[in-house]
Write a structure and sequence with these properties.
Blueprint lengths: L1 H15 L21 H6 L12 H13 L5 H16 L2 H16 L2 H15 L3 H13 L49
Length: 189
Amino acid sequence: MARAFLALVSVTLCLLLPSPVFAVVPPLTQPSWVELTPQQKQILAPLSAEWDQLEPWRRKKWVGIAQRYPAMTPEEQARIQRRMNEWIKLTPDQRKAVREQYKDVRKATPEQKEVLKQKWQEYKELPEDEKSRLKAQAAAKPVPKSAAGKPLTPAPLVPRAQPKPPTAPSPPAASVPPASVAPPPPPAQ
């Protein structure tokens, strides 16, 4: 009897208490462009045209960057400004491809990341005219849609098999080559 009473009380309490499934979660809101401080507007100026169309979580990320911005070194600040300006020039498809590549790099093994760092360092040490040539070459080459989601990490180098030296065909036993045809060269030693 006591068990039945406890079961009835617990079921009643469960029905009376609000369920977390029905809890209303207010939408995540972040400031619109006009709600930003003058300092935030100055820092985030490259994003001004698109700010109000950004998802709230992206705005939150950029507001966080703007808060840390004054404590950054001048080099870091210049890098942030440069990247914002580059980002704003990208099409939505290009942005999606960059995000996918970023995810792939984050998933890369430490060895793959080290190879990437090494290749990037080699690229940075190239003369400007060589960098320009490589950029022009990359821009001229169309990127297939299937390559958009491929990782940036280079494939491991696999040694190629050495080609076998060509062998001279053996002449048929009963025939003599015509005089106008030169005999095949002897096999290379």
